[in-house]
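protien #1 (seq + structre)
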Amino acid sequence: MSSYNPAVEQDGRTRLLSPYRNRLVLALCALAAGVLIAGFWNFHWADGFGREIVAGQTIGDTEHLSGSYSERGAGFGFVFAIIAGLAATFTACNCVVFAMLPGLACATEKAGSPRRLAIKAIGIFSLFVLLVCFVYGMYVGSLGPERVDAFNARGNRLLQAQVTFTLLGVVLLLWGVISFGFLDGMLRRLPPKVLRFAASPLAKACFMGILVGLFAIGRPFPVFRDFLAYAAASESPLYGGAVMALQGIGQILVMVLLFLVLIVPFSNRLTNWSARHPGRLEQFSSATLLAGGSYFVFYWGIAFAYDVGRWGFKLDWYS
């Protein structure tokens, strides 16, 4: 096995791959890390923090608020939306959003104006999160108060979460495998224009935004479901779309701020570092995609189906 393997040209550059064995070991470690995090995830702490601290200390009991649209009106829905998004930040249905950070950071590798490109990438990412959330919110707004109760039933929302996040996990796994270069032989059969488009930082930012926007569709988090009931009570698809889009902002706000604070000010240094260590940042991005994908597939798919997760609870590590 050669120690150096040039892959397809991406965005005007030749992507350099490290030895196959090194990439395979890193990929397996990322998969294992995702499974371990999912297996020991303390959802009581994560959900409780969002429900009792983020929501409880700002707007109060969201279960009570969910049925107060006629009393509080449309304006309060926008406050409810941003709090519901923030409350979901560290839940099992949203924490994988942070796996997108390294991928967006790859946008700063391009020569020229890395800081400008990084800001553009985070802007495109955020835009597509909002677009997906807006479309989903229009559907929620059309349900009305009666139909949303059936939509929010525990059995329905858990099944919705299992299907949605397992499929998203498979997509992340496939993306990680492709990004690691394991499928380059198959990809070379695609038209060069398609490969260049898919490899461009802004196309990746767009796809990441779509994936993160879809998180809202599967989210079973009680605070979020209470927010859905409030939005549906308006019986207005436009209103539902607007508040759901604002929820999308809350959902990614911490991640976007981290990106702006950690990446944008140091984009030139990151570009220089990447030039000295070609392919390192992309490999780290690939690893986080695999870790996020394995987390979703294990937590929402395998563990739910076969009761093989929740190790911390089974070992009595969590109260």
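ok now protien #2
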Amino acid sequence: MEVLTYNACATLLRDTSYTTGLAELFDESGVTDTTFRDLATESVNYVEGPTHTRLRAAIGSFFTPARVEAMRQEVRAGIESALDELDGAAEIDLTDQVIRDVPSTLFARLLGVDPVAHRDFISRISEESVRVFEMDPTLAEDVTTAWTELVDWVDELIAIHTPGGPESNVLDHLLAARAEGKLSDRDIKVSLVTLLAASTDTTQILAGCMFWAFIENPDQWERLRIDPSLAGSAVAESARYRPGDAWIFRVATVDGDVEGVPVAAGDHVFACIGAAHRDPSIFDDAASFDIGRRAARMPLNWGVGRHFCLGRMFAVMELEEMLLATSERWSAITHRDVAAAAVAPYLSVQHRLPVRVRWSH
């Protein structure tokens, strides 16, 4: 079943009678190794009730607004460095030369590992492991390989970790929670695997979609350049207008209904947020890209309720800084090949986004 309206999608995502379907993703993808299925179903993204509350409190206490703001300047410096390396080039691949390293560098620092040595691996493993969401059995071998690499690296990280204090990095934070009896060794492994799988892919895709939206609406780029204070609302509007994920997957655990339509236990239900974000009962002039939009409802990209994305604040901060840095330097962005862009797959921005830029100075 596909759920299309905003309110129905939000209600579905909050409903505790639906699981996040992580086990079914591996089943549908033809992955026979139960190791990854077990890790997924023990994660904060799957479990419910007191276990979910315990895990979310222990992990989520690391992802605070203060930590986000403390890293903002460092993120901006990395973006500025990438722009410096472009050396005024008129034609660039925005994904490869600017976007990709931003979330992977940040996550490497959150893990306490060398960004230069590990950011390419983090970006690749996140991108490849989340292909399980495609539920395509022809990808079974690729998905298995990616998750094997991911789990092996987490084991290595834990084995070689040198404590740096409870606030140094996420692993220190998790170990401190274990010392307080809030997490087990297994919880730490599961949590790191979960965080790594989701670490960079969604932010990278959202960034590409965000710039694509501005390319399609050059008047909004000029508006942002004139008024940089719109960066925050521009990120929210970009997430609404071109969400990186067209849907969020759920599985019914009991018989029920969605707005009167019967749903049987075991049914796969998709909250189609691409449709929900164009719901005219929620968003005025929903088909327009308006970076000054003050919508009463937030985009559903990061979910709602108990499974709301733990890393959302970091992602939003990264996207804001990308916009602020590039809009300060570029007076215009256009597709390098307009005809090719017109027929490009929706998520092609994950791999490449060839553009022309006009430097303002």
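The first helix runs from residue 6 to 14.
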